[in-house]
């Protein structure tokens, strides 16, 4: 076996080990992020329902962050997505969503 072949095999072996070590870490980060997003969307959903009841609105009404966020309102600040995404309120009857489709799907499946 030539020296070049051994070097290539060593490189690929190290790459396989590195990926094997990193995958469980990334899977854990993904699960933690999804749970955090889920908890935030539950909090937003609760704020929407409370706003609906307090203001005697219809479920088809639209609301904005200004309706929910403020010192004496339902949320102290607009929730920030852990990895730079955004949350969307939608109609009162619609569940909140986030810009990461996997996290929104997780929320809808587990609510």
In short:
The protein is mainly alpha-helical. Helix content is about 60%, strand content about 5%.
Give your account of this protein's structure.
The protein is mostly helical and 111 residues long. Helices cover 59% and strands 4% of the residues. It is built from 3 helices and 2 strands, in the order ααββα. It has a two-stranded antiparallel sheet with strand order 1-2. Helix 1 (3-54) crosses helix 3.
Helix and strand topology:
Blueprint: H1 3-54, H2 65-68, E1 87-88, E2 97-98, H3 101-110
Antiparallel strand pairs: 1-2
What are the defining features of this structure?
111 residues; mainly alpha; two-stranded antiparallel ribbon; rod-shaped
| Beta strand % | under 5%
Question: Which shape, going by the Cα principal axes?
Answer: rod-shaped
Distance between the termini: 58 Å
Low-pLDDT runs of 5+ residues are none
**What integer is the average pLDDT?**
80
Helix content: 55-70%
Query: How many strands in all?
Result: 2
- Major sheet description: 2 strands, antiparallel
Q: How many domains is the backbone divided into?
A: 1
| Helix/strand class | mainly alpha
CA radius of gyration is 22 Å
Strand order of the largest sheet: 1-2
Instruction: Tell me the number of helical segments per DSSP (H or I, 4 or more residues long).
Output: 3
Element order: H for helix, E for strand: HHEEH
